[in-house]
Design brief:
Blueprint (H helix, E strand, L loop, with lengths): L1 E7 L6 H12 L5 E6 L14 H13 L6 E4 L11 H11 L4 E7 H6 L6 H8 L1 E4 L6 H14 L6 E3 L9 H9 L3 H4 L5
Parallel strand pairs: 1-2, 1-4, 2-3, 4-5, 5-6
């Protein structure tokens, strides 16, 4: 099976994530999406109000309310030693399920930063990425720059673009609205 690996803190999971997951199976041809709840993003501060287990359980409940989704919420990173590098997660999934092909799902913001990740060339060459648009990022220009760097090194990076709408809300904006007592401003985005 072709599986899209969509990691994140999902703090909280929202309708923007839902739209991306739908695009992955309906437009991109993935058989299944693994929504991988990460305990902590090594590039972000420790602003998480809920534990990884709590966010995992919330994601399971949210996905269960959408039976039309071809999504499995996966807690693999919650059982891995810190830090949870993406390449380790992809390698662990490939070892656990050698019959499947895995592709990493990231936003254009992360594509721009991917060369700062652990083993980015392995991620891009061995697993590949499918990139969804993010506000303020020129996905095609970022992709072209990475492909040029790969060619200079004699590598072949697998980078696909996801035909998904630009998500108008982020989890951090949702958390901020809740902390400021503006929950009615963001209720439409909650899953």
């Amino acid at each position: 099976m072709d599986i899209a690996v969509y990691p994140g803190s999902f703090n909280p999971l929202h309708t923007g994530h839902l739209a991306i997951m739908k695009c992955l199976t309906e437009r991109m041809g993935f058989d299944l999406v693994y929504l991988v709840v990460s305990p902590q993003n090594p590039f972000k501060g420790k602003e998480l109000r809920q534990s990884g287990q709590e966010r995992y359980e919330a994601a399971v409940r949210a996905v269960a309310r959408h039976p039309e989704l071809e999504v499995k919420v996966d807690d693999i990173e919650l059982h891995m030693p810190a830090p949870q590098y993406t390449i380790r997660t992809l390698d662990a999934l490939a070892a656990r399920e050698p019959e499947n092909r895995f592709t990493l799902i990231i936003g254009a913001d992360n594509l721009e930063a991917i060369l700062r990740w652990k083993d980015p060339e392995r991620i891009l060459a061995e697993y590949g990425v499918a990139v969804y648009p993010r506000k303020g990022f020129d996905m095609e220009a970022i992709k072209a720059g990475l492909l040029e760097k790969a060619a200079e090194k004699g590598l072949e990076f697998r980078i696909k673009t996801v035909d998904a709408p630009i998500v108008e809300i982020s989890s951090s904006e949702i958390r901020q609205a809740i902390s400021e007592g503006r929950k009615t401003d963001i209720e439409q985005y909650l899953m």
